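@channel sequence for tomorrow's demo:
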Amino acid sequence: MKPRLGIVIPVLNEAEQIAVKLQALQALRADCELLLVDGGSVDNSPTIAEPLIDKVVHSGCGRARQMNCGAAQTTAEVLLFLHADTRLPDGAVDRILQAIDAGYQWGRFDVGFDSHRAIFTLIALLMNWRSRLTGIATGDQAIFVTRLAFQAVGGFPNIALMEDIALSASLKKLGKPCCLTDKVVTSARRWLRHGIFKTILLMWRLRLAYFFGANPDDLAARYYRRH
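structure tokens (generated this afternoon):
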């Protein structure tokens, strides 16, 4: 019997942490299909992941391209797109399937950070509040969607940045998201490495520029120049 949920994990050069992250998902393999989509790692991420995953898929670089490739490689009814540095809460699979059975076509989790610093509690609070107000989800919030809805909007647009924002905007036209209050926990490493307030300011600028029609390729160049 094919699993109802396929978990798609895009990866690029995550050899230092991928084993620990995938170990946390092993209990789900009885009911879910785990797919790791490597975007051309130059370390040994795929080799490390292989015994801890149901399928390793190789694609061109780019998170949107990787996630679309992974979605095409599973026959699961529901897709969950999970960043490699994000940890699911207990009972996540049941919560997702309950939401789908209740009639939602897509949704996301609230997010928290793996740091106890007060500033990260505030950042997470604002991210979750903004998501509820706008109906837009970010990749850090572990977006889930039925295969039919994902196909209906054409999957992730093949853009270099803001693919999660673009997908959410398309899915909103099909129905409102299920905003689960259970929290996924994502890594604060990017924020700490590049400066918390610098990262906040950069993301605000990029999202505002995207809203006003900036080219995602140009935004990606600005983002990865800093990261």
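heads up for whoever presents: The mean pLDDT is 91.
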